Fold Signal recognition particle protein.
Amino acid sequence: MAFEGLADRLQSTIKKITGKGKVSEQDVKEMTREVRLALLEADVNFKVVKDLIKRIKERAIGQEVMESLTPGQQVIKVVQDELRELMGGEQSKIAVADRSPTVIMMVGLQGAGKTTTSGKLANLLRKKHNRSPLLVACDVYRPAAINQLETLGEQLDMPVFSMGTDANPVDIAKQSIEKAKEEHRDYVIIDTAGRLHVDNDLMDELQQIKSTVKPDEIFLVVDAMTGQDAVNVAESFNDQLDISGVVLTKLDGDTRGGAALSIKAVTDKPIKFAGMGEKLDQLEAFHPDRMASRILG
Ligand code: GDP
């Protein structure tokens, strides 16, 4: 299960302090030292950990906590609040354009789960929000990517707009919006090309698509299992494209949690959805509060 190591360590650290009727500064210092180590071991970004620990200490050593009737529990509440805030506080919603269709651009490295997530998102928009999305195949460099999206479209009984591998991705994106308007589709989900690494050609193409279709959302899909790499990828995509949110995939796997806990702090962009499996209904809204409770038990 995701976060297992982190959850175990934090929970045992917390147990030591929860029942205390009196908490000393020394207790708080010991606890934060252990929390710090647990977070670093879970591959949370170093600077993120440093800032977080500073905030926890400031609040936990404050008068309100130390002089409360249940200081141990108050300290834990501080840790939980701060973890939740770290992951983005309130859960954020998906945009709706003033004029249909709402355009969502999906970006990310190859293998992160972009195509699968495009299908999952279309499924979720239809099922939960009663929308009718159009999926768009813009990865012209890999015929397999187009086939994959078309297969997903068949499984979902959802239309896929494709112009094959010879067309220009910017044209495909542009024409897909016309198509969506003609067919009264209210969401357009553009599955863009992925590469193994962030490179200039890819970014140029994505920027051109962005300036042409003016998307309402740009979702970066990153693989939670890749930890710090996911955070670095998020930073570069955000610098180049000013993304609007992140979808963290493979949270059903054995991830240590570093990406989930660092991305919002590093990019200041919210994690909007979490991929919880390979199936097309395994995409969930990301709830920082639930995730924080899960980690702290
Ligand atoms: P893309 O290259 O970014 O388009 O990635 P794909 O959509 O092809 O996904 C790559 C692999 O990751 C596929 O085998 C997917 O089934 C798998 N995958 C995607 N999302 C998830 C997820 O949330 N959990 C798990 N376990 N696997 C996922």
